[in-house]
UniProtKB/TrEMBL annotation:
Keyword Nucleotide-binding: yes
Binding of Zn(2+), residues: 438, 468, 471
Listed PROSITE patterns: CYT_DCMP_DEAMINASES_2
Cofactor: how and how many bound: Binds 1 zinc ion per subunit.
Gene: tilS
Protein name from the UniProt record: Multifunctional fusion protein
Keywords for the protein's UniProt record, in alphabetical order: ATP-binding, Cytoplasm, Hydrolase, Ligase, Metal-binding, Nucleotide-binding, tRNA processing, Zinc
Amino acid sequence: MSDLPVPGPAAHLLPPLAPFVGRVVVVGVSGGADSVALLRALVLTGARPVAAHLDHALRPDSAGDAAWVRDLAAGLGVPFEMARVDVAAVATRRGWNLEDAARRVRYEFLSRVARQHRAESILTAHTRRDQAETVLLGLLRGEAVLSGIPPERGRVRRPWLDVPRADVEAFLHGLGQDWREDPTNADPAQTRAWLRLDVLPLLASRFPGVEAALARVARLSREDDAVLGDLATRLTTHVSLASQPPAVLRRHVAQALAAAGLPYHAGQVDRLAAALGAGETAHVTLPGARNVTVTGGRLWLAPQVWPAPDFPLPAGWTLRTRQPGDRLRLPGGTRKLSDVLTDAKVPREERDRVPVLAVGTDVQWVGLTPPVWAVGAREAAGQPADPLQAAMGEALALAREAAQAGEVPVGAVVLGPGGATVGRGRNTSREHGDMTRHAELAALREAARTLGTPYLTGCTLVVTLEPCPMCLGAALEARVGRIVYGAANPKAGALGGVSDLLAAHWGHTPQVTGGVRAGEAARLLRETFRALRQPREPAYSPPPQLPPSPPPQSQPPLPESLIPASQPPAPSPQDASNDPHTTGSPPDLPRCR
Ligand SMILES: [Zn+2]
């Protein structure tokens, strides 16, 4: 083939094929100009293409196309594979539209051929004109993301997405190569054909660069989408979704639905994302009659799988679902099971499916994620005490000590690699007149002294309140392996915020768990602020060494606007849980300590 003349347009067509030189690749060849040109260009560059033709059986003369492509491949000395599938019948049987069915069947066929021939890539001949049509169509349909046809997805590569269509025909003319015209491509009743034949030429008469412009929109939109999609991926379980921008929430919902293999319409994603952002409840029935719910700031993909007990049941314990009168003894006091399920934001229709272990109406264990244990139930079941619960208890004791001293009640401990406490700290900002004296910093410093190394790899920082950016930065500097916090801090918490998103750039991302004994931590904060409203309360009177006039937001006692609204200090089931989306944190927490 090297003796063939290389016509001028090949200057654009051949360079994108360089990665495939010497490689076996599958090319979908319909017989149209684009795919015929791609096949010939691949042969010219020295790739090893396999021509694959799918007869969609949509036109009476479609068998003629198959024979034509077979002869073309034979003439080029290229392996040829074909299949005939009644796409219309598949569409009817599976409930897909025709275009969708054709696309799915085609890619299934191409993948099969690729496996047979051990080809690394499947190439399609989409050009810049296809890209322009796709973007325009998306724009007219009101799609949120105009990213067009992706240059690659899985094994599929589309090397000519930036190549002007005119070059393709010029290339074929130069080779003296003909091709088959699909008559449906000339039928303006088809929206795509109408865009190609009527709309784009009209636009091009006023905007000669319209094809390139629309392709540019696709490229930029894809770049934006990748960033926003990445942010959505990082919405880990400790993030408050209500604080996220709608663009991120939409992608978060779409990713969750896609991961669960659930089909959806764009409007349904919008509704679910809006409910997440507004903290409202929304029920949506997806195609296929699958119900999903947003409630309590969380997306529930029914049917929910609730954890079953994974330990032998002690004598007298029975496994069942909830019953009237069920109660549960928690660190904060005895509560009704129904209130525990409500507080955990379990959707109403799911509550009768949550497994419960009980002795009579005394509930011992609730199969939430993670499970909630009654006080003493772990011991009764012979289960090891949760070391994080114990460590948080220690941190809470330090927080109470801080409250006694008139400080914002935050406590922290650092667990060493072996699980022992190697550092302890509480907030001492007021004592020192220094707003950087946070519990976490004190605990981290002590841990470094105890272990004799500044690097706390393998250590866990346990703190009662979600760390601020300063303390998260310190934990990252010290290479802390895991951060566990109690109450979320929607105002000043760094996790789930910008610093969390940037944490990956440190080359070290600690594992984060939020909501451990959150109710106790939040209650302690609420009580402290309530006491701060009563200046004569001796425990909270300002110490004499206050800084003269610090900025208002950092001045203890905290301004009225930062004090949580008074709420009944009800014990929360999250005292014994660490579900981050159901923390019992107050609506307002201090911006500074
Ligand atoms: Zn801090």
